[in-house]
What we know:
By secondary structure, the chain is an alpha/beta fold.
Amino acid sequence: MKAYQALAAELVEQGIHTVFGLMGDANMQFVAHYSGALGQRFVGATHEAGGVGAADGYFRMTGEVGFASVTHGPGITNTVTALTEAARNRSQIVVLTGDTPPVRTWTQMIDIGAVVAPTGAGYERVYSAESVVFDLRRALHRARTERRPVVLNLPYALMQGEADAPQNRVPAATRVVDGTLEEETLEGALDLVAGAKRPIILAGRGAAAAGAREDLLALAEFLGCPVATTLLGRDLFAGHPLNLGICGSLASSVGTEILMQSDCLLVFGAGLNRYTTFIGELTQGKRILQVDTDLTNVGLYTPVDHVVHGDAAVVARRLTEVLKEAEFEGSGWGRKFSERLTAYRPTDDFEDKSAGGCVDVRSAVVRLDKILPADRNVVTDVGRFIMAAWRFMTVTDPLRFTHTSTFGSIGLGLGTAIGAAVAAPERLTVAIMGDGGFMMTAGELSTAARHKVPLLVVVLNDGAYGAEYNKLKGHGDDPDFSLVDWPDIAEVGAAMGAQVLKVTQLDELDQVAKLAQDLQGPLLVDVRLDPRLDVGHW
Length: 538
């Protein structure tokens, strides 16, 4: 077998049946063999960043390694922003590329390892045609165990070399959590819990991934305390009478009021960043217990009083057991808020300001949340719209929500959403983005159309770089410099092969529910907003 054939065959053997990316000299034979001779799926993007973003989205929705492939030179440099986003999210993806032919005059020569290093991704290379299978296995193993992207360099000069057929499949690494806890470690946590009069349980993505909902709610009910989540743990406690919702800058008015009254946070699988803590205001004066399997997260943003290195579900369950054995009685302070929390509605916190052919972004998201199927994937880009999108667009499972803001770049949401939709076609995937982010990667809409990817793309279109509008205004400068006279976004979507809907009034959004049923490709909804309408921002 040729090296590229052996690599493709090993991918199939490893259970990777979908590859994203864009073909070029460095990978075109690999792509042709993988999708042609081996009959696997290759989702060809329009831009390399879109391909890496799609692999990232695939991982986020499945928990399985995402795989992308791009060509050398500009092919790999075009991935840097998406690769950095994936690294910041600790996404387990492998990106295959390759050094150019070893000819001095080849214009696309670049040091791939040096390009990858500042992104936070790992770097591996194929050392010989004979070792290609083992080198691939090493890259996959590193992506899984280090929980970050790994770029694998298969040099162009080695692709045609002879390789042995794959043998001795190596299974993916599995993390095993011990159900026992050291008494000394648990004792400190128990002391902190016992000393709290007004505790709150705060859960993040790690708790959701650990399946800790029921164990955390059992602890909360025993203590009689409220529960809250980070953004990436959102809706983990949906439906519970003491659910405060998202903690921090995205909290509701009633949630913020209760959070400010607490004296202790029991934090499970969350990093306590500046947005979750509202720049430290919500943690000030509180004792904090942090439970995590990854000690690199502990105390990273906020000082904590005690740490338990363990799985969220296991630790919560054990705490409840020991507290019951000790006949401890919680304060039950949160129970008095259940009626207010149950009665709360998102519209309690704002007054609709839709007018003049423009829709209030908050009302738009609340309406979409209500009319779309509840069991959905949600992927958001970055922009002024995110305050509304993150607060009001719910999911039935926190693991079905993700955003592309860990590197602060707009324009990554569409590619990531395509990957999410490919990963879970049985559910509607909703991509929410601004007009600037959409136009940056509008070509990827044609990727979804060409591959018949069922995807609802909601463009919250204020005709501006909205964050810059707010910042210019805040500096006392003319914010109109951030306005952009885009082409008609609905027409752009139609030209890319999408079904389109233009929305200038709130009730027009009701058509989306019907149009989004049984999608055979992308549906783009262009929701017109007023850039001058101040509805609050992140």
